[in-house]
Specification:
alpha/beta, Alpha-Beta Plaits, about 25% strand
Amino acid sequence: MKYHFQLLLLVIVFKVTPVLAGDTLPIHTPSQLLSEILKYRSLSGHEKSVGTFLLNKSLEMGLNVHLFNDSDSSFNFSASLYPLEEQKPNIVFLSHLDVVSAVDSAEWLHPPFSGAIVHDTVWGRGCLDMKGIGLMQLEAVASYVNEAKQKSLPYNFTVLFVSGEESGGTLGAKLITEHNLPLLNTSLVIGEGGAGLKNVLPSKPEQEVFFLSIIEKKSLWLKLSVRQKTHGHSSLPASTSANSILIKSIDRITTERPIIIFNKTTKNMFRQLGELNGGVQGFVLKHINSWLLRPFRRKILKREPLLLTEVTNTIQLTNYSNPNGPPNVIPGVATSYFDCRLVPTVTTKKFLKKLKRRIHNHKVDIDIIDQSPDEKASKPNEQFNAIEAGLKKAYPGCAVLPVLFPATTDNSYFRSNGIKAFGLLPLELNQTLIESVHSANECVPVNTVNKGIEAYKMIIRELINQENTKMKK
């Protein structure tokens, strides 16, 4: 099972055949449209151009468009089968317009904002996170336009494009959930989350498993800073400085062994993984939290680091800085930033209290830069079953597991408002390009784009059929 649970981190991988320069696809395919979308440098805070392009494409597809916010830093709109004003129960496919930067552009085989289509692969920042997924959702919903005109479907199906997910969602999903929930009339959100992978189960390497997230870790971004007066010249010894204080604090934070914390979602995930795998390894996974295995569980989980992240808080140093100055001057200020991800049962207050005890230095100031909202798990229900049925039609023989997503997405804003949200990328993935998302050479095979569209179509069909069956009873 080594490495395969990394798909739960919103990292997305594909088995890509060698590219051949000069080979391109014909225009008007979904992949060609994705190529056009990727050419927009829509970093967080600059989403309006790509949003306007997609809004116009949605109108061309025959969808009903509603523009919620119309600024460069906050461009949010929906594209749906029926006008939102009709107030049909709404199933919302959630996507975001923004992407992270490509500071590593020199390492790319093809420029990150070129949207290059080479042989059978589309290249570019955001082709997976998350412009490619939004394109798949849009194509799938638009395929039902004619049917929606001919008869009244039990649901409205909507693609909701929002801004700023990569910077915390304040000007996107948060804004929508604060002001527009009555208009959206949302029955279910299907957003970013886990995906499908083979070679997950040691005893069944060909078994494909899809990880459908029902809750996420809480995101908590912290700033730690120290101000310490000392003599300025670095040739003179200084017993304490801003740097020495902060570095010691960082060491205390990053070297402490994390506590293992199980909740209902992770207990169920390990139980189902064990049942799928079978044998001795399956027994161990199924009973990993039992009193019998508790003394050994850390050693077992450390063999698969990302299994360990499912049941522990993570604290990652992402930045360290001093004010600009020459090398021979001792800075009086030192600052560091941490990205923390908390398991659902741990509150911010509880986490910060423990962090302060660990640092044990009143000179270190801790400020919250941003945090995701508290949320409750969206328990699997009939709609979950319909999504599972759609996945199994798209990928015959696959298994579907409800899981805790160890990253954080815009789904949390809807769950915090009592709306069910399931996280899913209906794509078959492998380990080859697991570091490409938020890194160099992000790409997606053309056949994966087409397969993702078909999977979303089948999920929509299963949701429609399920509701129609209920109405007939």
